[in-house]
DivIVA domain-containing protein (Haloechinothrix salitolerans), 239 residues
Amino acid sequence: MYRVFEALDELVTIVEEARGVPMTSSCVVPRGDVLELLDDVRDALPGEVDDAQDVLDKRDEILNTARQQADETINSANTDAEQTRADARAEAERLVADARAQAEAILADADAEADRAVAAGRAEYDQLTERARGESERMIEAGRDAYDRSVQEGLAEQARLVADTEVVRASHNEAARIVDDANAEADRQRADCDAYVDEKLAEFSDLLSQTLRTVDQGRHHLRGAVGNASGYSRNGYDY
């Protein structure tokens, strides 16, 4: 760049010292010297100036292309995020349904085993019931953990997709707003799912309580039947 300013100074000196044309404001300058200095100026200018001019000439095209790519990337990221959340919720509902079905199957097995265990003693019945309750709670907790993990993976995938290109980072403000809205929607759906799981757990608790009451009633009925049978036999013997 120093040679540029030096050549310009020499051009100014040549013009100032040039011989004037009579009766005009023009002057006579040495063409060869001026052209040589202009070549020096051209050669001294960095190549980045030409590149910058090309960028400026194509600025509108570059901006439009970048804006279009940003919109396409954001739309794709939002679509993927919505699909991920839908898949996570469907998987959570399936896990909860499976957990409930397995819990009901375990409770049915526990009820049948409890009928057999009534004759053997209360201790074995209590042990089986506690085992069934613990297993059902573990399976439901596993379903909830799987749902939370799926939601977190969906959010992480969304963040990775949104931050994947330089174009999206250039439109960070708009993308951040969209992601915040998506996170808020995910939190709302998660709260709805938690409420759904809590409702199903309450129904499961009621079912378990009813099962326990049914078993207790069966035991009382069995004890009464055994007592009546014993009294009848003793009376017949006395007779």
In short: Residues 172-238 form the longest helix (67 residues). The first strand starts at residue 19 and ends at 20. Residues 65 and 149 are 37 Å apart (CA to CA). The mean pLDDT is 78.
